[in-house]
Amino acid sequence: MKVMAQKKDDRRAAARMVREQIAKEQRRRRMIWGGVIGAIVVATAGMIVWVLLQSNRAAEVFTPANANASGNAIVAGTGPVIVEDYIDFMCPHCKTFHDESDAVIKQLVAENKISFVTHPVAYLDRFSTTKYSTRSSAASACAADGGKFTEFSDALFAQQPAEGSAGLSDAEMIAIGRGVGLDDTFEQCVTGGRYLTWAKKVSNDATSAGITGTPTVLVNGTKVQGNTAAILAAVAAATGSSSPSPSAS
Amino acid sequence: MRNWGKTQPWLSLLVRLGLAGVFLVAGLLKAQDLDANKRAVIAYELLPTNVAEIIGVAQPFLEIAIGLFLLLGIATRLMAWLSAIAMVIFISGIASAWARGLNIDCGCFSKGGALEPGQTPNYLPSILWDVFYLALAVFLIIYPVSRFSLDGLLKPGSSKVDIEGESESDGAEER
């Protein structure tokens, strides 16, 4: 009997040891597990914070000539009604809208009815292999410095590259600039990338203003459809005149 | 199904890797253009713009993290729950945009934001895909035990310390 009791005790002790060992093993595993999860969570959180800080860090931004008060668009004309246009030189529908409304908008500017405020945003960088949206926006600011923003924009839309292509090279844009009468200063501005940060600012400001796509047209701050008829109607309503401007043909 | 006990961990592996792929691809695509993703979130017009911008930056990295956890099989059931919650949010977001007649790109594997005039939104297929992913996530919530998972490696009793019927942790869920 005694021997059997002794054996029972031994077995109990052995079982307890095994249990303790298992518990220890479990704790170790739990620690590894927690460590791995913790590391990934911390890494993810760190990455998010880093990106947020990065995007909020103020890079040096130059403001081109003929910009609006916020420094995020180029103004043509001095008329009382503000027509704002958010475009990306890479966006096909921006070209369509430009081609369709250009003559009327130029006439409204010439008649001093509107100020035409263009925000050349760079939303579509991923649609070219060379960030054409950003580069063309920056180049248009260089053209604004030379007083030829409208002429240069017209030429860029006329030669709009296909989506997914390399876009126009800096050299091609410089040649286009020369074609509309821009000089060496323009060339240096494009080559030196003076307004690349400005293009980013224009895009960020537009995003924060809730502009989620291009083209977007605002007349005195209210969204209108991107076509001539809608713009004429909105401008007429804003001017308070019953007779909309005759369409230029 | 007689062989359910044997097939289930393999099926769960397939579902786990599929869902991991979805999250990794979606997250990596979005992380490449965070500004575009901000606009995609803003375009839903459900959140104040500044909140939407923060979500737009955080979301791709959270998706990548969920994708990595699922790929390695860490905390599978928790990640399946997060995936299911994410899908419910996506489905409600798209449905609400649809109901409000918004003309937006849902930002599902794409750039997001307002659509150009003349383009029609693609709400229904996006919702159906998300319902499919939701089903995968629910499957993983019910059957989280899968082959080749770190969960399996780290679970007590699944390997060398297999004494005194400790392997019940795996067996119970196989049913």
Report on this model:
- The complex is a heterodimer of chains A (249) and B (175).
- Helix content of chain A is 57%, strand content 10%.
- Chain A is an alpha+beta fold and 249 residues long.
- Chain A has 2 domains: 1-57; 74-239, 3-Layer(aba) Sandwich (Glutaredoxin).
- In chain A, strands 1-3-2-4-5 form a 5-stranded mixed β-sheet, sandwiched between helices.
- In chain A, helix 2 links the parallel strand 2 and strand 3 (114-120).
- In chain A, helix 3 (132-145) runs parallel beside helix 5 (170-179), helix 3 (132-145) runs antiparallel to helix 6 and helix 5 packs antiparallel against helix 6 (184-191).
- Chain A is elongated and about 115 Å long.
- The termini of chain A are far apart.
- By secondary structure, chain B is an all-alpha fold.
- Chain B has one domain.
- In chain B, 68% of the residues lie in helices and 2% in strands.
- Chain B has 7 helices and 2 strands.
- Chain B has helices spanning 4-32, 34-43, 49-72, 76-99, 123-142, 150-154, 168-174; strands at residues 104-105, 113-114.
- A two-stranded antiparallel sheet of chain B has the order 1-2.
- In chain B, strand 1 (104-105) and strand 2 (113-114) form a beta hairpin.
- In chain B, helix 2 packs across helix 3.
- The longest helix of chain B has 29 residues, at 4-32.
- Chains A and B meet through helix 1 and helix 7 of A and helix 2, helix 3 and strand 2 of B.
